[in-house]
Amino acid sequence: MFGCLVAGRLVQTAAQQVAEDKFVFDLPDYESINHVVVFMLGTIPFPEGMGGSVYFSYPDSNGMPVWQLLGFVTNGKPSAIFKISGLKSGNY
């Protein structure tokens, strides 16, 4: 249903489904990533009038996950580029 692209890396299309409506991509060495592209594969569209929120998660100083809303994708906007470099350092 979704794909993820980071410059210099292979495209990821095998998201881990962690809930009925939640998918996760693992981004090793996320500290070196500046931008991430999230896109719909075109195999399963959203129901009419629906879309999906895109979040980035990284550990805080205590190792607890911090979830930051990046934006969204919809049938009418099936891909988006998100800057994550400032988020990881807390500079947002």
TrEMBL record:
Could you tell me what this protein is called?
Protein Hikeshi
Provide one Gene Ontology biological process annotation: cellular response to heat
Q: What family is this protein classified in?
A: Belongs to the OPI10 family.
Q: Name one Pfam family in it.
A: Hikeshi-like_N
Q: Which organism is it from?
A: Pan troglodytes (Chimpanzee)
Compartments in which it is found = Cytoplasm; Cytoplasm, Cytosol; Nucleus
Protein's job:
Acts as a specific nuclear import carrier for HSP70 proteins following heat-shock stress: acts by mediating the nucleoporin-dependent translocation of ATP-bound HSP70 proteins into the nucleus. HSP70 proteins import is required to protect cells from heat shock damages. Does not translocate ADP-bound HSP70 proteins into the nucleus.
Transport found in the keyword field: yes
Q: Which domain of life is it from?
A: Eukaryota
What binding partners and quaternary form does the record give? Forms an asymmetric homodimer; required for binding and nuclear import of HSP70 proteins. Interacts with ATP-bound HSP70 proteins.
Gene Ontology cellular-component terms listed: cytosol; nucleus
Q: Which UniProt keywords apply?
A: Cytoplasm, Nucleus, Protein transport, Transport
Q: Which GO terms describe its molecular function?
A: Hsp70 protein binding; nuclear import signal receptor activity
* Hikeshi-like N-terminal domain location: 6-89
